[in-house]
Design goal:
The chain is an alpha/beta fold. Helices cover about 40% and strands about 20% of the residues. It has helices spanning about 5, 20-25, 45-60, 80-90, 120-135, 160-170, 180-190, 195-200, 230-240, 260-275, and strands at about 10-15, 35-40, 60-65, 95-100, 105, 110-115, 140-145, 175-180, 205-210, 215, 220, 245-250. It binds fe (ii) ion.
């Protein structure tokens, strides 16, 4: 692990902040050590929204999670957006921030979702160049997240785990390993997620994301709406045996009313952290 990432403090058990979960989060501070915010929800917003952020900062470590940087866009990131993101990160002063290995913009159009890039030497260079531009503007450590994809893209010439190792080595970024995304890809594209984890350099792993998946044998999807299944916790434990991450984070985006299952997920993650961090 490089020096900058090594200095990141242990954060513990986290949850993605969503306004629908605000009361739950504040009432369960004993289970929640940090929150992740969607950075884009606090850029170009009214003061009232910024006051929400300040309240979070007074009570938790806040990690900004960006969704629209489009690091995989061939023409480079929108530097106007990068500067706004940098100002937000400067305000929060987090130990690190995160984005996806993906693109959301192509030829000047916003495509409205996280699209996968081709895991190839060519895209490794594109990503490296784009990340260097972002790092020049935002000095805070960046960690990169793996996303789901449903078909193998033509032009792929690297194994996924090798690509993740290489981009972390080339850019000094850490890895935000989304365990649910990894599990979904492994089922849909028929590979062994345990072998994938074994192939990753554990030094790169800074944080985990987890949540339940949906679907059937023909296809799994990441709706972020279900209780976390045993298969996900088993995979998390496998990561923990190799490297205890700085933080685990429940990434729930729907069915917020099911507070008991959200609470149970947080408790299981807390137990994992306790077991392996003892
Ligand atoms: Fe995620």
């Amino acid at each position: 692990m490089n020096k900058q990432l090594h200095k990141i403090p242990f954060l513990g058990n986290g949850i993605g902040f969503r306004p629908e979960l605000k009361s739950f989060i504040f009432l369960n501070k004993d289970k929640i050590d940090f929150v992740e915010i969607i950075a884009d929800h606090y850029i170009d917003v009214p003061d009232a929204k910024l006051r929400e952020l300040e309240l979070l900062m007074e009570n938790f470590t806040v990690i900004p999670h960006a969704i629209n940087l489009s690091l995989g866009t061939v023409g480079g990131p929108d530097m106007g957006y990068v500067r706004k993101l940098g100002a937000l990160i400067q305000k929060i002063k987090p130990p690190y921030w995160s984005e996806h290995i993906a693109y959301t913009q192509a030829h000047g159009y916003d495509i409205g979702h996280l699209a996968p890039i081709v895991y190839s030497e060519e895209f490794l260079r594109i990503l490296q160049k784009n990340i260097a531009m972002v790092q020049a503007e935002i000095p805070c450590p960046l960690i990169l997240e793996n996303i789901t994809y449903h078909i193998e893209l033509p032009g792929k010439d690297m194994e996924d785990a090798d690509f993740l190792n290489s981009i972390c080595e080339l850019t000094a970024c850490g890895l935000l390993l989304d365990i649910t995304n990894l599990f979904i890809n492994s089922r849909n594209l028929k590979f062994d997620p345990y072998e994938f984890i074994d192939r990753l350099n554990p030094d790169h792993i800074v944080q985990l994301h987890y949540v339940g998946f949906e679907g059937d044998d023909s296809q799994l999807i990441d709706t972020h709406a279900r209780a976390t299944q045993q298969e996900i916790f088993d995979l998390m434990a496998h990561v923990f045996k190799r490297r205890v991450p700085k933080g685990t984070l429940l990434e729930r985006d729907e069915r917020y009313e099911l507070l008991e299952e959200i609470s149970a997920d947080l408790m299981r993650s807390k137990d994992l952290l306790k077991t392996y961090n003892a």
